[in-house]
Design brief:
globular
Length: about 210
C-alpha cells in the first residue's frame, strides 16, 4: 500500500507544471533610463550655456521662457494605451514677492451695461485699487516654476508636474525685475520601478 501511495505521489508531482515567474522588465528600452533638458531656443533666441554651466537668457518682452525635455522611450509594459507612465516635476530656488505695487482694476456689475448688443464688452461701474497689503493677503509668493506657497494653507503643492509625456515642456516665469539675478531650476523625472533622475538648470537673467 505504501508503495502504491509513493507511485501515485510521484505521478502527481510529475504531472504538475512549474509556475512561470514573470519579472518586470527594465523601464527604459535601452536598459539605462536617461533624459535631456534645455531652454527652448525658439522661445528664447540667443540663449547659450557658458563654460560654468549657466544658461544666459535675455528678456524677450514676454514674461516667461520654456524648458523642454526629451525622455528615454519606455518598455511597452509601461505604456498603457499609448500613454507612458512617467512624471516630471519642476521646482526652483527663486521666489517672487509683490513689492511696492499699487494698481487699479475695473469693477463690473452682475447686470452691467454693455457697449454693444453682443453682450461681450461690459462697461465698468467703478474701480478697485489694490495696495501691497491687499496683494500680500490675496497672492502668496510665486515660485518661478509656476506655483504659489501659502503658509496658512493645508493644501500647498510644491512644484509643478508634467505627467505621461516623453517630451515635457514647462514655462518658467521671467520678468524685467529679475534681470541681473541668477536662479536654479530643479527637474526630477520619475520612471516606473521608482527610478528617479534629478537635473538642474542654472540660469542668469539678462
Amino acid at each position: 500500500m505504501s508503495r502504491l501511495l509513493l507511485i501515485l505521489s510521484i505521478l502527481l508531482l510529475a504531472s504538475c507544471s512549474k509556475e512561470e515567474i514573470y519579472l518586470n522588465p527594465y523601464p527604459c528600452l535601452d536598459g539605462d533610463c536617461s533624459n535631456f533638458f534645455e531652454i527652448d531656443p525658439l522661445v528664447s533666441p540667443g540663449v547659450y550655456q557658458d563654460e560654468n554651466g549657466y544658461f544666459h537668457i535675455e528678456h524677450q518682452g514676454y514674461n516667461y521662457f520654456t524648458i523642454q525635455g526629451q525622455l528615454d522611450e519606455l518598455h511597452p509594459d509601461y505604456v498603457i494605451n499609448g500613454v507612458p507612465l512617467v512624471e516630471t516635476i519642476y521646482d526652483s530656488n527663486y521666489w517672487v514677492w509683490i513689492d511696492s505695487l499699487t494698481f487699479t482694476v475695473p469693477l463690473y456689475s452682475v447686470l452691467s451695461f454693455f457697449t454693444s448688443g453682443d453682450w461681450q464688452n461690459p462697461i465698468p461701474v467703478g474701480n478697485l485699487t489694490y495696495t501691497i497689503t491687499n496683494m500680500a493677503l490675496n497672492f502668496p509668493p510665486l515660485n518661478i516654476a509656476g506655483y504659489s506657497y501659502n503658509p496658512d494653507s493645508e493644501d500647498n503643492i510644491l512644484g509643478t508636474f508634467s505627467k505621461y509625456n516623453l517630451n515635457p515642456r514647462q514655462q518658467i516665469f521671467f520678468d524685467t525685475q529679475m534681470v541681473g539675478d541668477t536662479a536654479s531650476v530643479f527637474i526630477k523625472t520619475i520612471y516606473p520601478q521608482d527610478i528617479e533622475i534629478e537635473k538642474q538648470i542654472k540660469v542668469i537673467f539678462e
